[in-house]
Design brief:
Blueprint: H1 7-38, H2 42-60, H3 68-88, H4 96-109, H5 113-128, H6 139-214, H7 219-244, H8 252-265, E1 269-273, H9 284-301, E2 306-311, E3 315-320, H10 336-344, E4 348-354, E5 357-363
Parallel strand pairs: 1-2
Antiparallel strand pairs: 2-3, 3-5, 4-5
Length: about 375
């Protein structure tokens, strides 16, 4: 069974990709603008170029496991480039490679990333402060420019790392949702299969007992019971096959007939009040499940002699005698799943017992008096 990927996850993923592209574009644009306005000449651009090329190589692998060798080489080239940029004031992009290395290392191998990014920015500012030892009148401006460019890239890498982790969490959530959907479907299938086979097995058990008792006293009746067992077995196999193919649909009329036969085989007298056309087609399968569960529950916990089945458009009442005495009020334990299904349809399930009589009342749709 294919589980569709939630559209909200797709929308968020697309939104984050767009945001990452904007972050990259902004960082590159700021770096280019600063370099274009502050670089002294083309020679200053060429001096910084090796460190920028290494920084680009590091950024191309930002979604992979960091390459320690490449990071080390970029650091070795980037540190003297930063010193040169600070001392000469010729190109403020000399801090890019060092900031990229720091950003990648912080994202990959630390937890308090924002704090470490601040420390890295302060370290770049500290190295850049060597410009204050020169006699350049723009020394303070050089320190500010180098720190600003480094801060832009540190913030960008921190932001992209957060997005990558969010991607991973979204993928995990999507996988968990898929597994949950599969688990729910398996549970639904198992519950329906239990409803189908559990009820039929009770019928077969009783009919087999009847056939065993009558095999010598009434061989014809015993043969009929055995033939009925064969038919029930074939019907159960067909119903299980239809359920596996998602074609199984319960019919109240088809469910009522074997219930009457089952209760009759158990020695009970059955009274059925069912006006023509009831229940309504939209509730038929649900009330058929209720009837099946009520019958199974009755035969498991009581010895009924008289059973009354009353069905209307949107309700079903099953009453039987022979219920065991209880010290505590009856609860929905064992029928809780069926009760939740009825509640989802705007109805509910009510149980009443007293003086050996047990009543199960189910409503679907708009709650009305039965």
């Amino acid at each position: 069974m294919a589980i569709a990927e939630p559209s909200t996850v797709i929308d968020i993923r697309d939104m984050l990709r767009t945001r990452r592209t904007r972050t990259w574009a902004f960082s590159v644009a700021v770096t280019v603008v600063v370099a274009a306005t502050a670089a002294s000449d083309w020679a200053a651009v060429l001096v910084v170029m090796p460190s920028l090329v290494l920084a680009v190589l590091v950024l191309l692998r930002v979604d992979e496991e960091p390459d320690r060798l490449l990071l080390g080489l970029t650091l070795v080239v980037g540190l003297p480039t930063l010193f040169w940029s600070a001392l000469t004031g010729a190109n403020p992009t000399g801090s890019v490679s060092l900031a990229v290395v720091a950003g990648v290392v912080i994202d990959a191998w630390t937890t308090r990333r924002a704090a470490w990014a601040t420390v890295a920015g302060a370290a770049v500012a500290g190295v850049s402060a060597v410009a204050l030892t020169t006699d350049s009148p723009d020394a303070v401006g050089t320190v500010v420019q180098l720190t600003f460019v480094a801060a832009i890239w540190l913030c960008s890498l921190h932001d992209m790392g957060s997005e990558r982790r969010l991607f991973a969490r979204l993928e995990g959530a999507k996988d968990a949702e898929r597994e949950l959907s599969l688990a729910r479907e398996r549970h639904r299938f198992a519950a329906d299969l239990h409803d189908i086979q559990g009820h039929t097995l009770h019928v077969i058990k009783l009919k087999a007992a009847v056939a065993a008792k009558l095999r010598t006293a009434d061989p014809a009746r015993a043969a009929r019971e055995l033939e009925a067992i064969q038919q029930l077995t074939a019907q159960t196999i067909t119903a299980a096959r239809d359920l596996a193919a998602d074609r199984h649909a319960l019919s109240f009329s088809e469910e009522l007939h074997p219930v009457v036969d089952l209760l009759d085989a158990a020695g009970a007298t059955i009274t059925v009040q069912r006006p023509d056309g009831y229940p309504a087609s939209e509730w038929e399968a649900t009330l058929a499940r209720v009837l099946r569960a009520a019958t199974t529950n009755m035969l498991r916990h009581a010895r009924p002699e008289h059973v009354s089945i009353v069905v209307g458009t949107d309700h079903l009442v099953v009453t039987n005698d022979g219920a065991p005495a209880r010290e505590e009020p009856c609860t929905l334990r064992g029928l809780d799943r069926l009760h939740r299904r009825l509640r989802a349809l705007g109805g509910g399930l009510e149980l009443r017992d007293g003086e050996g009589t047990f009543t199960l009342q189910a409503r679907v749709g708009e709650v009305r008096d039965c």
